[in-house]
Amino acid sequence: MNSFGIISIILLLPLQCWTKSSFLSKNFIDSINRKQSTWIAGRNFPEDTPIESLKYLAGTLGFHPDPNFEPPTKVRKLENVAIPDTFDARTEWPECKDIIGKIRNQGNCGSCWAFASAEIMTDSLCIKSNGTVKFEFSPEDLISCCAECGNCKGGYTGKALNYWVKTGVVSGGDYNSGEGCRPYSESTFLDNITPSCKQQCENSNYTIPYSDDKAFGTNYYHVKRNQKDIQAEIMLNGPVLAGYVVYTDFLNYKTGVYQHVSGVKNQNSSDMTFSLLVIGILCAWSSCKADDNTTFLPEPTTTDSQNPYGEEISPYNLTKEQLRRMCGSYHIFGEDSYTRNVDYVHHKVDKIPPTFDAREKWPYCESIGTIRNQGFCGSCWAVASAAVISDRMCIENKGKIAPHISSEDILRCCRGCCRSPNPCAGGDMRKAMVYWVQYGVVSGGEFRSHEGCKPYSKESYYDRPTSVHCLRNCTNKDYNVSYEKDQQHGRKAYTISKEVEQIQTEIVLNGPVIASLRIYEDFFTYVTGIVFTDLL
Hints:
By secondary structure, the chain is α+β, with helices and mostly antiparallel strands.
């Protein structure tokens, strides 16, 4: 088999060019469909979608910041209420069918709380007016102007309903709809950026002023959390707003009556909570269990990402040359200001344990277990370098300092690291480590994370660099530390031999190491396990 390319990794905790989540795999999807028949699972997200991106989409923080807060509860006498076997709000109120049945798209912003709140407002107004008023409330207005409600990192549905009653909400359709006073904006939909509050209509074709466009609720209330009360409320007044903890199998939901089949409800110790509308029941209520593991849903609200470059890019249609380009680790030989400053270390080898996991030895360093996503750029050399720097700094400071070092800063500013003017064409990880020592590197999270000084950019992720220049300033407008003050410097960069015992000793003593790995074509089907190949 011919050699295919070279990538950079961190040994024992592989930093892959992309990582695959088991709960998004074809095997997991197929197992769901084999185990039950009430709903159909299918692919909604690429298998390498980071779990953090999915957590952002499930942005419900709760009903209210105070967990003990309870809104007024509507108590209804149910003795004489006949509950039918099935019920659908779309057929009960046909004049509002197009409103109740509309599926809206939150994009990449964690705004399900705002969408569900806006939808319940829209449905309620249509039903109360017998279909004469079809006013589509604006999630954008809630996200941007209700400061106590939340933002693209999550929010509270109760606060949104209270804002509707007290302050009012304007109209606004989905992204690219051109509908209403404040339609959903591009930066919110694509880039997970919370918009600023602009108390004016942003749709130039909409003729009603912002203040005149506001619609108000009269009140909001809570119903008891039991099956019959919820059923009666839907039958008498229409859809209800609900929230629930998402199990990982739901991320593959396509259609049908959802019930938890397999998978866990939390990844990395924090639950994913989603807001939705319950518009009816798709099976006989008398035969459907209502417990903590069962939620009955209409069609799913899509949250598929739209490619900001208007073209279809996914791990499933890349050419061989694109795959080769992503394996961007190169040794740029020749003595220069970088390579002259690399020390050589040889360890005295003592007893080496039969197994070792850096995550267990240094449990306070969460960065060691974090898998970063380089996207479609040949930046594994920069991503792996930033990851090992983050790990080593955390270990050195015993978890008191745990920076997320910026791959973007290394990629854009270490010009001696790159093999061409385009940093996505590959680079030298050794020179990246020396650059950290000599010049320093700032903090920066993943693509769309909006964390740190210089998060991974859209241009880098999609391998579409609009500029190859190094910008020595923080690109995250919400980060309040200057570029110069945010820079972190290493004490020294060194290399060790390729002898197995030397590498093992280095990992046991000091933590993860960075290495280049020659890969073959079969590596692109790697999911988990131990790969046997050549270190460079």
